[in-house]
Amino acid sequence: MAPTTQFELAQPPNDAVSSLVFAPNAPSRLLASSWDKNLYLYDTLTTSENGDAEDGSGVSHGTLLRTYEHRAPVLDVCFGADDNEAFTAGMDWEVRRVDLESGEQTTVSKHTAPVRRVVYSKAHSLLISASWDSTLHIHNPTNPSLTPLTIPLPGKPHAMAASPSKVIVAMTSRLVHIYDLGTLAGALESQSGEAPAPWQQRESSLKFLTRAVAAMPSDGGYATSSIEGRVAVEWFDASAESQARKYAFKCHRQTDNAAAAGVTDVVYPVNALAFHPVHGNTFASAGGDATVALWDAEAKRRMKVYQKFADSVAAVAFSTDGRFLAVAVCPGFETGMEDYSGEGRTKIVIRELGENEARGKGAK
Amino acid sequence: MGKKKRGHPDVEEILARPWCYYCERDFEDLKLLISHQKAKHFKCDRCGRRLNTAGGLSVHMNQVHKESLSHVENALPNRQGLDVEIFGMEGIPEDVVQQHNQRIIQNFYQAQADRYAATGNPPPGQGGKNPPKKLKVENPDDIKKRLAEHRARIAAQKAAGGAPTHTPPVGAPDGQSPAQSASPGTFALLASPLPPQYPQGGFNYPPSNLPSRPGSNLPVPSGLPPRPGQPGFPGYSANASTVDELVASASGQQGDHIDQMIRDLERGEAPARMGDSAAPASADEPAPEKKSKKDKDKNVRMVYDDELSPEERMALMPRYAFVPQAA
């Protein structure tokens, strides 16, 4: 048994992390997009010579392999077809393809507002970007001759996630659109320029602004979270009995007894969600209360709450083999903040999960 | 009353059962309790080793895994602390023991009262004074008297020139119940106390009067909040209500002040949310919504409450803003 199961990566980003993603193949290859205008590529397992081992334990602290500078803060990142291709969503309205080997960057798409999210579907070779200009852009990076598809959205997208066959787009005004990836691929292929209709249109189960979406690897459904400390789990299947299974629950809240006005419930946003790739019913939620919790979506049970981190948790990601959990820790943005900086307080924590740590216990 | 009630042990037996400080479960014997504690509360989640106490687990986590134990797993929200050293039934603070006993007693009498109310049986020990068997209260003299009255009335009606009518006189002094009106003539002829007469005197103790057991100085069970798991407690799932009740009782309240207790229940909701190991289980969309309405009188502070997302707010800051080149 490893003596330490949790460590901070050496040389963390200089400012808040917007997104974390593990490579589709190598379990220790991690990308982090940051507000400091850089994309960071880490190897989480090796320890570089200059990687500080200040505690002298010789424990792995990971290696920063490379950084990729952008013109503006990077709001999201995803891997492409292999471990050497990445796509980034930029504040500079652009979607870029980054060759992680050569460092070469090419602009894939241009929106008319900052790009909030990017997802890539390997099965359909589709790159989907969601921008605050209220459009989705659909590309096929393997066939650049195809004219990209633009789909207008009824609201500003804030979160997006892809399951094996669907992509879920969560927008302002509690709008949720689910597109079928096959239909999108077909529409792109046909080059008719017509935007396909969503496969399903839903209203979010949560009353407040949607913060994150994550899709079940089983293709069964998805989870959403809001700024008001709540998570909802829903199923794609539109039948009444499947819809009856959906539920929502409060989380990432704290009771503050110190306040003079009696008991105050402090409600934090749930910043990120991630499903476990192996134990597909398990998902992690990352909250502004500086905690990460593991939940069993099927059994509707909380499995674990990790010890508080130093600051709000901005992003979480599971490695492809499900053995590691990456947690991005940086100060949370709160209502009324005039200024914000994650400088010096941003960390990425890698936790090695115990064998059964993320396995659901089954319904009780 | 020597006969044991089937399947319902008496309160002393329940009170004697060993129970777990962390989750309030009770067990057949101490051995089972200890193995429960080792499996549920003192098990290392890294290597599965079962320790004897929370302190032992803490030391183990520290030395073997270099982690620190912050709370006891699977414990009730207000019992997660590492400050009390529990082993089996040892180490439980006296006030917690008393709260536990009180809760057991309350639940016991509530369950008993519910049972009596459901079955219509009186509590044991009262049978002799007011036995259910004596449903017929009228004695033969009464009946004869009533019969005589009735005959006199029939005769009076005859005398008044009418044939015997089957319509009962409205507001007759003998207080015939409407249930009997269907066959008053027959009744008059047979003059025997038929079953329909029961309403006149049989039900001296409707179910609602049953619960209070004489001689017990305990709080009256009927005034307590519903037992855990009882359906129909608005907005509370079975899980949450157990925990809430415990939270409330553990916060040092006496069970006799109902309003205070309900308020406590509502307040107890908050720690239960975060600490409740079964939080998602208690979470159907309608229930939390109802609660959040209740929460209104409790202060809720949202760390982030805005129409714009935090990212959009940050994007407005000069530090992060992107100014597109004039194209």
Automatic annotation (TrEMBL), chain A:
Keywords: Repeat, WD repeat. The keyword Repeat applies. SMART domains: WD40 (SM00320). It comes from the Eukaryota. InterPro entries: WD40/YVTN_repeat-like_dom_sf, WD40_repeat_dom_sf, WD40_rpt. The keyword Signal does not apply. This is Mitotic checkpoint protein bub3 protein. The lineage of its organism: Eukaryota, Fungi, Dikarya, Ascomycota, Pezizomycotina.
UniProtKB/TrEMBL annotation, chain B:
Residues 222-231 have a biased composition (Pro residues). Residues 206-215 have a biased composition (Polar residues). Residues 13-72 form the BED-type domain. SMART domains: ZnF_C2H2. Residues 116-137, 156-239, 264-306 are annotated as: Disordered. InterPro entries: Znf_BED (IPR003656), Znf_C2H2_sf (IPR036236), Znf_C2H2_type (IPR013087). Residues 276-285 have a biased composition (Low complexity). It is found in: Nucleus. It comes from the Eukaryota. Residues 287-306 have a biased composition (Basic and acidic residues). Residues 42-70 form the C2H2-type domain. Pfam families: zf-C2H2. CDD domains: SUF4-like (cd20908). PROSITE patterns: ZF_BED, ZINC_FINGER_C2H2_1, ZINC_FINGER_C2H2_2. Keywords: Metal-binding, Nucleus, Zinc, Zinc-finger. This is BUB3-interacting and GLEBS motif-containing protein. It comes from Apiospora saccharicola.
